[in-house]
Amino acid sequence: MEDLQQRAQRIAAKRSSMWVYRAVRRTIMTVLYPYFRVQRRGREHLDISGPVIVAPVHRSNLDTPLLSGMSRRRLRALSKESLFVNRYFGAFLAALGAFPVRRGVADREAMREAIKMLEAGEQMVVFPEGTRQTGTRVGEVFDGMSYLASRTGAAIVPVGISGTEAAMSTGTRLPRPVRVAMVAGPPIRPPENRMTRPQMSRFSEMVRERLQEVFDEAQALVG
Q1: Cα(208)–Cα(183) distance, rounded to whole angstroms?
Q2: In this structure, how many other beta carbons lie within 10 angstroms of the beta carbon of residue 22?
Q3: What are phi and psi of 52, to 5 degrees?
Q4: Is 142 left (phi over 0), alpha (psi -120 to 50) or beta?
């Protein structure tokens, strides 16, 4: 029997999935961007070829959909496995580029799929802080992002997003019309040689510092 991961990858590979992604992206930019008066800076840093890890701060469920307007390419993203249990909603998420990951465990299957996608030159969202956080400071970042970059040679593009927490914080059902700003920084290239664990930790800290810089810039834009 086909498992959730296999099914998600099969659906995402269909040409029709790109039509779905583009239609949803167009709707987001037509409806949500004016509603939140979204400001964008640094889009050129995402307009690059090859594998890219988009590394944003994470303050709201609005972050991932709004990010789609920052890049012309389809964004792949890890999403919690429970969202794919419903066959139809799971198929919709897969068409948008999402694929399932088991939270709270080392999901080697999801990691293998992420590596394959990046090696194929795709663009993927990885939240360095893991789950949603609060506040104006970037907390501890995990080395999973650095591991993927080291394995695949993917560039990491930090993205600061401000306003989404006020617009739709945890537990909020309807978003408020709060100004949102997104700022992408220059790509961060991993070392050519595979990084050791201590090197990955130092690399992650460098990404955290760059992420704080663009987060500060995004916060300044929304006042």
Answers
A1: 15
A2: 12
A3: -135, 130
A4: beta
Alpha carbon distances (Å) from 217 to 39, 44, 179, 185: 11, 16, 14, 10
Banded model confidence at residue 137, pLDDT cuts 50, 70, 90: very high
- Sheet with 155-162, edge to edge strand ranges: 39-41, 181-184, 155-162, 52-56, 123-125, 75-80, 98-101
In 48-127, the DSSP E strands lie at: 52-56, 75-80, 98-101, 123-125
Confidence check: pLDDT of 159 > 90: yes
The vertex-28 CA angle with 162 and 219, nearest 5°, equals 10
CB atoms within 10 A of CB 101: 19
> What does the block give as tokens for 161?
């997003």
Nearest Cα residue to 78 out of 126, 9, 11, 115: 126
For the whole model, what pTM was predicted? 0.93
CA 193 vs CA 116, 152, 154: distances in Å = 19, 11, 13
Write down the mean pLDDT value for the chain: 94
pLDDT single digits (tens) 36-83 = 999 999 999 999 999 999 999 999 999 999 999 999 999 999 898 999
